[in-house]
């Protein structure tokens, strides 16, 4: 019995080694690329240099403590100042986190599935967050889409 367990562990380890070797052979080496994975292609609806895209954001719509729907908000930024644009791109993870947190609170407290969300209120909140996080005004929020999906 004791030898059979050790034998199966050896086969398992050998299988991992073979799988690792085959994965290493089949995958292209990243050493030639400087160790970085290639960036996915960006969907850019305009050729303007001042355009900065923001990934779509989702937040749960609550009725009490029960999730009843989902709020989708798509925005982008128009940042004519090159220095501020670079800061916006650099701060994008922090900006997006602040946007999602604000949208989650807004969707839980102010959005109802039987009425349209207030686009002016949403864009105003996101604009205030942007100006605060970038430490100066100049990045204009562009609302692309807002939608509600109701749970069945």
Walk me through the structure.
Helices cover 45% and strands 22% of the residues. It is of the alpha+beta class. Strands 1, 2, 3 and 4 form a four-stranded antiparallel β-sheet that branches. The N and C termini lie far apart (55 Å). The model has no long low-confidence stretch (mean pLDDT 82).
Task: State the main characteristics.
4 helices, 152 residues, single chain
Got a strand count?
Answer: 4
Can you give the mean pLDDT?
82
Q: Count of helical segments?
A: 4
H/E element string?
Answer: HEEEHHHE
Low-confidence stretches: none
How much helicity do the residues have? 40-55%
What is the element layout, followed by pairings?
Blueprint (H helix, E strand, L loop, with lengths): L1 H25 L24 E3 L3 E7 L2 E13 L3 H9 L1 H18 L9 H16 L5 E11 L2
Antiparallel strand pairs: 1-3, 2-3, 3-4
Helix pairs in contact: 3-4
What would you say about this model in short?
Helix content is about 45%, strand content about 20%. By secondary structure, the chain is an alpha+beta fold.
